[in-house]
Design a protein that fits this description.
This protein is mostly helical and 759 residues long. Helix content is 80%, strand content 0%. The protein has 25 helices and no strands. The longest helix has 69 residues.
Length: 759
């Protein structure tokens, strides 16, 4: 047998391991978001509980391994070489697709992606078989399209039902308990815990462990035929236990509910979705073993049709244990799993803050309609009822800066467990990701987490995620189809090329994810002390002045030399600098002023002005660099020698002024501050002279229209930079002097404490 098939099996094993990593990163949101969002326990304890659920679910996996072997295509119609290429196409596509979603922090369904990748790869292999064989038949003989149609219907049903049910149940739950739920929960907590844990137990048994060795056939038969009695017993038992823990041992049973739900969802995820990650590899390994036996008996793999894949299969427990171990390690160490979880928590959190998504026309229309509808309901609702509802929804500050409280976390887990269990009993192919995400969005809406200040961003975020889900099937099918055709046509060369391309893609996606997280962290920066604010502001001003000179100098040089590459790099650098100060203006200033306690209002005022003036400078730098790059990129004429010398003159005046000011700032002696005014006045004078000279050059046809427009724009933006720079330096001087005055008023002990905080 050709060694390439052994190589394919080894590649499938490596891709399965990668798939487990990216799959857990994607699906961790299903069982982590409620516990992490509510901060029910330290992160290590949450991950430990989830890890136990993952290991148990993996060891006793009841996932249908047959879905990868014969659920979407008919293996008896395909030969061994074709089946191996099919499996390889599926695994390459799955790793890339899931990693792409994880990189951008978007949760998607591993079940949907796997089924449609199998469908796309099967279509590719089938078409190639039809085209290259004399009696190929037609495509319908190879494909089982019923599975795909069932999943598509399940998508639409689960999205709508989960959101509506989550919204309704959360609304009435909040009416019962309110945000200040301690007193009410004292009387109703045991019953609430009994209901929640009964739902979670039902979910864990029927979704997580049904068909595993932990559940005997007799026990399952009893449950299926006496379900009402079993649920009643479970409810009574859990209610008594919760009451006992609450009143005797003073246990916070809401935490027990949330952690139990986390474990149940993790167990179900590993037990049912494991096939999405290792099912294809297991099918490929079994196919290789079958082919090896045929070759040993003197047969040929080229004429070996894989009808044996239609037989039932039981996965080896050692493979399951290995898969569970990789899943647990990924759960603990994968940074991308945090990104996906943060997306859902961010969209569901209570209160304002940095929004990951922008608004859109659709989200604005939805919010506008909801506001109008709310006004209509307010007009017809009696005042006493409105007052009662407002009191129940009066927000209470959450402990440990949690995104939402334990009531909502328990509702998320309970409703998700109930809906997924219901779907399983009705044999609907619900996606765990879809249900848990939409329940979380429904509960956040009902909980008034989406206020007027955040609703457009949250709704657009939900629409973005849902659109990604609906595109998953199309993208998975198309990508797997393309990869499958390439593998069938290119053979060994295509395998080598695609593996190199996969390594390159994973490397680039890792860098992209790191860059995206760094940007988000910079947006989330809130200065926590007066000293930190002062030190950060001083550093930012010094860095901005240096970068401004650097960008202007390189811009002039790139225009003189018509260097497109340098101009492009400058444009990117200017855009990053502009985005940094735009984020500071939007996300740092107000939270910082709210967080730190400063008695000196003048210091706070100068801090706000420093950010504003810095933002205006970077906006002009952005405009200069972009216009120069577009001029060079469009292959327009370079500046004349006279135009270049004029710009160099402006740069020299700015450079001298910046350098002298930085020396004053470093020494703290501003006695020569008039230098800044002289710099400003000099450039204003130069601006007028250079504008006149350029008009003269244009009239005498010494400069074409494009060059004249660009030059005048650069001179004008330089004037703006000069004006805002002088304002920045003036504010910095006042800021520095005000802080020095405040520091002198501190006693020796306060000065020591202040220095210690800075260190």
């Amino acid at each position: 047998m050709d060694p390439i098939y052994l190589i394919i099996v080894i590649i499938l094993l490596g891709l399965a391991a990668l798939d487990l990593v990216v799959g857990v990163a994607n699906d961790a949101v299903n069982f982590l978001n409620s516990s992490i969002g509510s901060k029910v326990a330290p992160l290590w304890l949450i991950l430990t509980v989830a890890s136990v659920g993952v290991v148990v679910g993996a060891l006793f996996s009841s996932g249908m391994m047959e879905i990868a072997r014969s659920g979407v295509f008919h293996p008896e119609k395909l030969t061994f070489p074709a089946v191996m290429m099919l499996f390889l196409a599926v695994m390459i596509t799955d790793v890339v697709l899931l990693d792409l979603f994880n990189t951008f922090g978007l949760p998607t369904s591993t079940t949907v992606s796997l089924v449609f990748e199998l469908l796309g790869a099967a279509v590719a292999v089938s078409l190639f078989t039809i085209w290259t064989s004399e009696n190929g038949g037609h495509l319908g003989e190879y494909i089982n399209s019923g599975k795909a149609l069932a999943i598509i219907s399940g998508i639409f049903i689960s999205i709508a039902v989960a959101f509506v049910v989550g919204t309704i149940i959360m609304y009435f739950s909040r009416l019962i308990f309110s945000f200040n739920y301690s007193k009410t929960f004292l009387y109703l907590g045991a019953i609430w815990g009994g209901i929640a844990l009964t739902a979670i137990t039902y979910f864990a048994i029927f979704k997580g462990l049904k068909g595993s060795v932990l559940m005997s056939d007799n026990f399952l038969y009893f449950l299926e035929n006496h379900m009402g009695k079993a649920i009643l017993y479970a409810f009574a038992g859990w209610t008594v236990l919760m009451g006992f823990l609450q009143f005797v041992f003073r246990v916070k049973i809401l935490k027990v509910i949330v952690l139990a739900g986390t474990m149940a969802l993790a167990l179900a995820f590993a037990g049912n979705d494991l096939v999405n990650f290792i099912g294809v590899f297991m099918a490929g390994l079994d196919s290789f073993k079958i082919a090896k036996e045929v070759v040993a008996a003197g047969g040929s793999v080229d004429s070996l049709y894989m009808s044996a894949l239609s037989n039932p299969v039981a996965a080896n427990w050692q493979w399951l244990l290995g898969a569970g171990t990789i899943m647990v390690l990924s759960l603990w160490f994968s940074k991308k799993s945090r990104s996906v979880t943060e997306t859902e928590v961010n969209l569901a959190r209570k209160g304002e803050g940095v929004e990951r998504f922008s608004s859109s026309a659709m989200s604005r229309s939805i919010v506008r309609g909801a506001v109008n509808m709310s006004k209509t309901f307010n007009k017809v609702t009696p005042v006493p009822i409105k007052n009662f509802i407002d009191r129940r929804f009066a927000h209470v500050e959450l402990e440990n800066q949690a995104s939402f409280d334990l009531i909502r976390a328990s509702v998320n887990l309970t409703i998700s467990a109930l809906l997924i269990s219901l779907g399983t009993s009705l044999k609907l192919p619900l996606s765990t990701t879809y249900v848990t995400f939409m329940v979380a969005m429904g509960t956040s809406l009902a909980d008034r987490a989406w206020g007027r200040e955040s609703a457009v961003y949250r709704i657009n975020g939900v629409l973005t995620v849902v659109a990604g889900w609906l595109l998953t099937a199309l993208i998975a099918f198309t990508a797997a189809l393309s990869v499958g055709l390439l593998l069938m046509w290119g053979g060994k060369i295509a395998i080598a090329g695609l593996m190199l391309l996969l390594v390159f893609f994973l490397f680039k996606s890792g860098k992209l994810h790191t860059k995206r997280k760094e940007k988000e962290q910079s947006q989330l920066q809130v200065l926590s002390s007066e000293e930190q604010m002062v030190l950060t502001s001083k550093k930012d001003v010094h860095d901005l002045l240096s970068k401004t000179l650097s960008i202007l100098e390189q811009t002039i040089q790139s225009m003189r030399d018509e260097n497109r590459k340098v101009s492009k790099n400058i444009m990117y650098e200017s855009n990053e600098l502009y985005q940094k100060y735009k984020d500071k203006r939007n996300y740092e200033v107000v939270p910082t002023l709210e967080t730190i306690q400063i008695s000196a209002l003048d210091l706070e005022q100068e801090y706000v002005q420093l950010i504003d003036y810095s933002y205006e400078i970077t906006k002009s730098l952005k405009a200069i660099s972009e216009s120069v790059y577009m001029h060079i990129d469009n292959n327009h004429s370079a500046f004349s020698k006279e135009q270049t010398e004029d710009l160099k003159t402006i740069y020299k005046v700015l450079s001298d002024g910046y350098t002298k000011f930085k020396k004053m700032a470093d020494s703290g002696n501003y006695s020569d501050y008039n230098i800044v005014y002289e710099m400003r006045d000099s450039i204003f004078t130069l601006n007028s002279k250079m504008t006149k000279r350029q008009i003269k050059r244009a009239k005498e046809s010494e400069s074409n229209t494009r060059s004249s427009i660009l030059f005048l724009n650069l001179v004008n933006e330089s004037k703006i930079i000069t004006l805002q720079s002088s304002n920045l330096m003036k504010s910095y001087r006042h800021f520095d002097e005000e802080y020095s005055k405040t520091s002198l008023e501190l006693g020796p002990q306060e000065m020591v404490k202040s220095a210690a905080r800075i260190i």
